[in-house]
Structures are given as C-alpha cells and as structure tokens.
Write a structure and sequence with these properties.
oxidoreductase activity, globular, Short-chain dehydrogenase, eight-stranded mixed beta sheet, Rossmann fold, alpha/beta
Length: 343
C-alpha cells in the first residue's frame, strides 16, 4: 500500500468503527502485556466478559497494576484475573517473567503484546540499548519467543489455535529506514547508537519501531510450520486513539497532538476492539490472519516498502540480527528456534 496522505488519515479516523467481536473463552488463558491502562485495560475488560479461565494482566508498576485489577473486577465482576509484573526496559525482567510462566505450567491461548513507548528523546537503558528499540523491538520479540513453546503445546494438547497479537500502527506507512542504515551490516545496532539518534531521527523513531514490529510479525510467521494448527501471529492497528502512549510529548508536539485528539481520535475502548478482533475474530478464515496486518477488523496490505525486495531483505537481516542478540540474552530462545520454528 502506498503511503497514505493526511486526507486519507482523516477519512480513516472519521470512518465507522466496527462493532466488538466476541467469543467463548471458557477454559482458556489470556495474557495482555501493558494491561493496566489505555488500550490494554479496555481490551482486558472485553476479555473478562468472555469468561476465560485465567486473565493475566502484565504491567511494570505494581501499584498501578493492582489498581487496574481492582477496577476491572468492579466494572466486570470477573474474578479470575492475575497481576504479573514485567519491565520491558530490562531483559532480565523478561526472562524472569517467562521462567515464572514455565514454572506455572499452564496453557496460553492468547498473548496480546500491547506495551510500547513513544519518545522523541534519546534514552539508554541499563542494558545499553536505545529505549524504544529495546522495548518495542527487542523485548517484545524476546518475550514472544520465550512463551511461544507454551502456545504451541497449548494448541497440540487442547486442539485449539493460539494467537500471538502484536499491536502495531498505521504510522509504519510513514517509516523511512535510510539506505545507509540498511546496508550498515548492523541495522539494530545502528538504529540504537547515540551517534545515529539525532533529534531528527528520534522525531520519527516511533514510526520506525512500528515498521520493525511489522517485520517481526511477518518474519516469525514465515518461520512457523505451515499447518492449519500452527500458532497464528498477526499485527494490528488500533487506529489513532486517546492514549497515555504520547504522555511524554512536550511543546509544539504536545499541542498538536492535543488538538488532533479532539478532532480525530477514537476512544480507547473503540481502539481496543481491534485488539480483540485480532485475538478472536476472523473465524473460518484463520489462514488469512497468519502474518497479517489487521485494521478495521480486516486484513490489510502493509506498506509498499515492506513488500519490495529491499524490504524483504531488511526484514530477514533484522530477524537474523535480533536472534543473535536474543540468544545471547537467554539461551532458551535458541531452544524455541530449534524445536518450534523452521528454516
């Protein structure tokens, strides 16, 4: 799909919001990363009303998480909800989280990776990566690959098709990875380096991170066994919504966003419907969802760049670089690759 114009964006935001799709989740386990606020919290409420056996709400802040759990119980009457703590700015936190789930021994039917950050300032994590690249493009894949074996086993043992949902964005259409970066031999390292991350680069860092999310979804799908019973992995665009994601904006950028929200933004509940559709929608046509980019409750075409030869090459190179990094962080990633993915 060609890069949409601003008029296209306005038309999209003003178009009708599809209704909420529902499903019977009895006996199933749903996990939402970034569940204490915004889209994640609204999606959690929708899932709660579908009566899963377990609803795991994962977030970084215990106090905010506990408040969100209590609010969800009040508003839905659902009690089988658990708060799990994870810090996506810490690789060790992710490994501990995955180990806890491994020891828990339960099934995992739906994993919604909703957490992300959007900052225009260069910030380095304690692990040595630029914060957006780590949180949006390394931590979420690390968690996905550590939990994937549980999802595969769930499908085999219970005769179901688990789904891994990565929350993306239509801003990936505007992403622009420079040729020099793509040919650097170390794409992720270059994108993360302080030298490269000038104010001009950081101004569109969130856009680039959402493009990398699309690459991850497609690359992982390419490496899953081609079987109707395989885990479904997809990406979803909730649209431009009221959100705390942009809470760190300041100055002119914050003012423009404030105006745009009041003119164009969907509510967080409306946006969350897309997360639900990606998780339980499309019944009877599941194969179309595999590796798909979902918007307005249907599978849509990704950006033209993703489909070009250069885009496909970039996707594979970034996957290989990412795996090299993640295997060093947690050897269990290599086990997932060897046992559950194909070349």
């Amino acid at each position: 799909m060609a890069r949409p114009t601003f008029i296209d964006f306005v038309r999209y935001q003003w178009s009708a919001i599809p209704p909420l799709v529902t499903a019977n989740l009895a006996g199933k386990t749903v996990m939402i990363i970034g569940a204490n606020t915004g889209l994640g919290f609204e999606a959690s409420k929708h899932f709660a009303r579908m009566n899963p056996k377990r609803l795991i709400m994962a977030c970084r802040n215990p106090t905010k998480g506990e408040a969100a759990v209590e609010r969800l119980k009040r508003e839905t009457g659902f009690e089988s909800v658990e708060l799990w703590i994870i810090d996506l700015a810490s690789f060790s936190s992710i490994s501990r989280f995955a180990t806890k789930f491994e020891e828990d021994g339960g099934r995992l039917d739906i994993l919604v990776q909703n957490a992300a950050i959007a900052t225009c300032e260069y910030q380095e994590t304690l692990d040595g990566w630029e914060s957006t690249i780590q949180v949006n493009n390394l931590s979420l894949p690390l968690l996905a690959l550590l939990l994937l074996p549980h999802m595969v086993r769930t499908g085999r043992e219970y005769g179901t098709i688990p789904r891994l949902v990565v929350v993306g964005s239509g801003v990936h259409y505007w992403a622009n990875l420079e040729k020099a970066v793509l040919e650097s031999g170390n794409i992720l390292g270059t994108l993360s380096s302080k030298k490269y991350c000038t104010p001009q680069v950081m101004a569109h860092r969130y856009f680039d991170s959402k493009l990398l999310n699309i690459f991850f979804v497609r690359a992982l799908n390419d490496r899953l066994p081609k079987s109707p019973e395989s885990v479904i992995v997809n990406g979803v665009d909730p649209g431009y919504c009221y959100s705390e994601l942009r809470r760190d904006f300041s100055g002119i950028r914050a003012l423009v966003d404030w105006i745009m929200e009041r003119l164009l933004a969907h509510t967080t509940e409306e946006g969350s419907r897309q997360l639900i559709w990606a998780s339980v929608g499309g019944a009877g046509a599941e194969d179309k969802l595999r590796g798909g980019y979902i918007s307005r409750s249907k599978v849509c075409e990704v950006s033209d760049f993703v489909l070009t030869r250069d885009g496909v090459t970039a996707q594979d190179n970034i996957w290989n670089e990412m795996i090299t990094v993640l295997v060093k962080l947690d050897p269990k990633v290599q086990r997932t690759i060897d046992e559950f993915l194909v070349t």
